[in-house]
């Protein structure tokens, strides 16, 4: 993906997903060695665009994991409550109000629940004991949180590379203006 | 203006400071968002607490668990709200602490970067609602 403009990149594997942008120490030298200002400029812009694409893709992934969290915590809350009933040996039916359809609620009596059914997706629902269900949901929740953390780390690293590239762009631009100014002055 | 700008030499060290600063800004934006959510949540709980206080101890109320509602005694609901509020408040405090730390670091960096680049660099955020 980052095959072009390798002179703009650091040769490290610090982050396997995001290549590190090199801070261009000596702009004049870089411009001279790599085919003039406009070529360097173009390469920088190209690199920046690629970083931006990566940024939106990582952000999207992060959001999709974040969206999963409320569902999982809701389900976990219910299971923990059911387990707490079991512990207190409350055996009489519990009256609950549940959502039948959007904004329509109905009452139900739940008699001594022992198992729950988890919707696994693809039209499959599986019976679980409370313990197993809690374990599964907890694992999914932890997994989602880990993923989000990893994505946040990648994003933070990526943003740093973007900032470095932005500064490089503005410094190349400044170098160009400086050159023009001195050309004018020498006349 | 261009001549004034070109007098500043950006070093790799400056670049690192700028990068770190931008990282802090991102973190700050996320934390401010989180603080807003927690505060809203807390307000809701406080409203519920007020309403509950008006009720008799034996009255049954609907308590939301996940996506359904369950009938519980007022006293149980009060207890539940109290624990919820406690955990929310500790989360809120944690967020505030993190924000405070970031603010200190940002001010430190601002001092250094403004000291070197003056008006050639802009480190202000668009909305200052902290």
Give a brief description.
Chain A has 187 residues and is of the alpha+beta class. Chain A has helices at 27-33, 36-87, 130-186; strands spanning 94-101, 104-110, 115-121, 124-129. The interface between A and B is medium-sized, with 27 and 21 residues.
Strand order of the largest sheet of chain A: 1-2
Structural class of chain B: mainly alpha
Alpha-carbon distance between the two ends of chain B? 33 Å
Uncertain residue ranges of chain A: none
The residue-averaged pLDDT of chain B reads: 85
Q: Could you say which overall geometry of chain B the principal axes of the C-alpha atoms support?
A: rod-shaped
Share of helix among residues of chain A?
Answer: 55-70%
How would you spell out the order of helices and strands of chain B? HHEEH
CATH topology of chain A: Helix Hairpins
Protein name (chain B): Prefoldin subunit 4
GO molecular function (chain B): unfolded protein binding
Function (chain B): Binds specifically to cytosolic chaperonin (c-CPN) and transfers target proteins to it. Binds to nascent polypeptide chain and promotes folding in an environment in which there are many competing pathways for nonnative proteins.
Subunit structure (chain B): Heterohexamer of two PFD-alpha type and four PFD-beta type subunits.
